[in-house]
Design goal:
Helices cover 59% and strands 5% of the residues. It is mainly alpha-helical. A 3-stranded antiparallel β-sheet has the order 1-3-2. Strand 2 and strand 3 form a beta hairpin. Helix 1 crosses helix 2. The longest helix is centred in the C-terminal third of the chain and has 37 residues. The radius of gyration is 19 Å and the shape is globular. It starts with 6 loop residues before the first strand and ends in a 5-residue tail after the last helix.
């Protein structure tokens, strides 16, 4: 049986479709932490780091600030184990964010969700139009 796969900084960046510098920047900010550091100082990241990195990229694409993204990563780390599985046994004491930060985060998430819901119908309409346009299906 083989152990977990580890990514170097460059491999993690390649797997997520970002630059090595982006991974290093997120690591410097404490948003990503290596699972291992070799004797020569090389950072190695496990599969969960790829999930966190992709989450960070998605959150940033949705318009969240780095601080909001940091809070989301903190919340995920507190409620999930290192493999990324949800921990059903987590308690409020496991979450190192105060209630004010959590309420602000919830408000931001609700605003993003509301904007997404408003745009979902438009996106579906545009997709139908583009599908018709490029498949030659006549307008109905």
């Amino acid at each position: 049986m083989t152990g977990p796969t580890f990514y170097t900084t460059a491999e993690l960046a390649r797997a997520a479709g970002v630059t090595r510098r982006t991974v290093m920047h997120y690591a410097e900010l404490g948003l990503l932490t290596p699972d291992q550091v070799t004797a020569s100082g090389r950072s190695l990241y496990g599969p969960y780091a790829l999930r966190l990195l992709r989450d960070l990229l998605d959150l940033r694409a949705l318009g969240m600030t780095l601080e909001e993204a940091r809070d989301m990563v903190t919340l995920r780390r507190a409620t999930h184990d290192v493999s990324g599985a949800y921990r059903h046994d987590w308690t409020r004491a496991d979450v190192p964010l105060d209630d004010e930060r959590l309420q602000a985060l919830q408000g931001r998430l609700r605003a993003i969700q509301s904007a997404y819901e408003r745009q979902a119908e438009n996106l579906a309409r545009f997709d139908r139009w583009l599908t018709k346009r490029f498949t030659g299906t006549p307008e109905t």
